[in-house]
Amino acid sequence: MSGIYARRLSVVAATAALAASSALLAAPNAQAAMPTPVSAATARTYLGQLTVGAEGSSSGYSRDKFPHWITQSGACNTREVVLKRDGTNVQQDSSCAAVSGSWYSPYDGATWSAASDVDIDHMVPLAEAWRSGASSWTTAQRQAFANDLTRPQLIAVTDNVNQSKGDKDPAEWMPPRSSYKCIYVRAWVHVKKHYNLSVDSAEKSALQSALNGC
Questions:
Q1: Considering the entire predicted model, what is its pTM?
Q2: What ranges make up the beta strands (E) of 159-200?
């Protein structure tokens, strides 16, 4: 019995090692899928150009004021396009729902095999955008922001990690996987610059500190 048990442990260990190596192989593809943010040097320049001011009010904010996920093509909406883009070997059914595949979350380094375990994160959260200038936008502008596939604004990540982020800015939350923080802050500044959104002083300080380490 002890020999069988030992062999079972060997199989378990080998399977775990294979899974770990598969995750490492999947990581670069998934990370490359989000549009590449500007360089750290450009992000530092952009950060210096952003308006700095006290964060605005959340009064009047609703996710419904940022229509998402909109149809992108055929039966596919924005979420499904990002799931396909950021995943590996993703298979979709006739309604464009992802029925199989794997997703590597660069925020925490986890790999998932069910789309239900994955959220599509808005790099700059909708509520954060509202408090940073989007409250004065038209609904069409807010819809474009919430479904932006051109800038590094949408990324597939572990659902509970996305929920822990909520609507926090980089002074309040950063990805738990430290090696991704440089890409994260470059993307954050890239999006804020493109949409002419403001930063508060604590947010700017956190971004500067992180970018100086890139």
A1: 0.84
A2: none
